[in-house]
Write a structure and sequence with these properties.
Strand content: over 45%
Number of strands: 18
Helix content: under 10%
Radius of gyration: 19 Å
Largest sheet: 6 strands, antiparallel
Structural class: mainly beta
Order of helices and strands: EEEEEEEHEEEEEEEEEEE
Shape: globular
Oligomer: single chain
């Protein structure tokens, strides 16, 4: 039975007609949700030796424009410099607690995601401002900036993949999902998010599986937002 920090739900995973029957996931997938670990985003000013490189419009919060300020932190003892990011909301600057990817400075596709969504919509308890690509050994690791209405604070979490909002269960409410296309030795997967009052933001992942003969299969969103298995 689910606990107050572990809940389950199902997702319709019927595939397009042209998909082979043995290549698709079951019509119902049981998802197990667990709380997302959030990191506080502190109010902090840039250090004196940091150089501001760019300011980028980054959506809005409660009707006030938000700006992403990008700084260069010089390396010490010959080490490389790093890109640091702040979100400026009204007259306050919040330090993103991870190093930014250089793609953000260049504003490449997939480096910035302005989302501006509340969970749940009616209660306006949890706000996702957007995502910023982070430094990593490959593309696609994104840090998300969130605001918790109940605690009046900004928070942060990171996930690999591309975010979107899609109504996957046809209930007229778009779910927040992140699709990871795969990288290096990791197959693709799909992460689903939901907000549970008194618990917080929760996530569940449709993980890879395999055929009976051992051929790998991995989760992806196919035509019409249906979850399918793709054979590699």
């Amino acid at each position: 039975m689910p606990t107050n920090t572990e809940t389950t739900s199902t997702v319709d995973s019927s595939s397009a007609a042209e998909q082979k029957q043995d290549d698709v996931l079951p019509e119902i997938i049981q998802l197990q949700y667990t709380p997302v670990q959030l990191t506080d985003v502190p109010i902090q000013q840039p250090q004196d030796d940091w150089s501001q490189l760019k300011s980028v419009p980054f959506g809005a919060f409660k009707g006030t424009p938000v700006v992403l300020d990008i700084y260069e932190e010089p390396g010490e003892d010959g080490s490389r410099s790093m890109l640091r990011g702040y979100i400026k909301v009204s007259d306050k600057s919040y330090l993103i607690p991870d190093e930014l990817s250089s793609s953000v400075l260049e504003e490449k596709d997939g480096s910035l995601y302005v989302l501006e969504r509340y969970f749940p919509v009616s209660g306006k308890q949890f706000y996702i401002l957007g995502g910023v690509e982070l430094f990593s050994n490959g593309p696609g690791r994104v840090g998300y900036l969130t605001y918790q209405e109940e605690h009046d604070k900004w928070s942060f979490f990171d996930v690999w993949g591309k975010p979107s909002f899609q109504d996957l269960d046809s209930n007229n409410e778009a779910e927040f999902i992140i699709e990871f296309p795969g990288l290096h030795l990791h197959f693709s997967d799909v992460v689903f998010f939901r907000f549970v009052p008194d618990v917080g933001l929760m996530s569940a992942t449709a993980k890879p599986s395999e055929h009976a003969d051992g051929r790998p299969m991995f989760a992806d969103l196919g035509r019409g937002g249906k979850l399918i298995k793709i054979v590699q």
